[in-house]
Amino acid sequence: MTKKLENLLLFMWTVALTATLGSLYFSEIKGYEPCDLCWYQRILMYPLVLILGIAYIQKNPKIAMTTLAFSVIGGCISAYHYSIQKLSFLQETAPACGRVPCTGQYINYAGFITIPFLALIAFILIAITSVTVLKTIKEEK
Fold first, then answer.
1. Terminus of the chain with fewer CB atoms < 10 Å: N or C?
2. What is the distance between the alpha carbons of residues 57 and 10, in angstroms, rounded to a whole number?
C-alpha cells in the first residue's frame, strides 16, 4: 500500500473518530438527548471508527467500498435531518421522532451549523475520500 492510500485511510479514520467523539460530547457531557434520526446517523458513523481503524492497521484500502456505502447512507439521513430542521415547509410535515423532536436544534452556530450539519460534513468527507481511495487503487493496477 502506498503512503498516499495510508494517509487517506488515516484521514477517514480521524474524521469518523472526531464525529463520534463530538456526538458523545453533545450527548454525554452537554446532556443533549439524541432524536431518532441522530441515532440512525450514529449507527452508521460509530462502526466506521472500528472499520477504518482496523483497515489502517491492516493496510487494507479495499475497505473503501464499505465506507462509501456507510457514508452515502449516513449522508442521506443527515441531509434529510438537516432539511427538516432548516426548511419550514418540511418542518410542518416532519415525522414525530420519539421523545426529542427531530426538528429541534441544540446548537445553531452562525445560523446554519447544527449537529446534523456536522454529521453531514463528516459523511461527505468520508465519501469523497473513499472515492479517492477507490480511484487510486484502480490507477495503481
1. C
2. 10
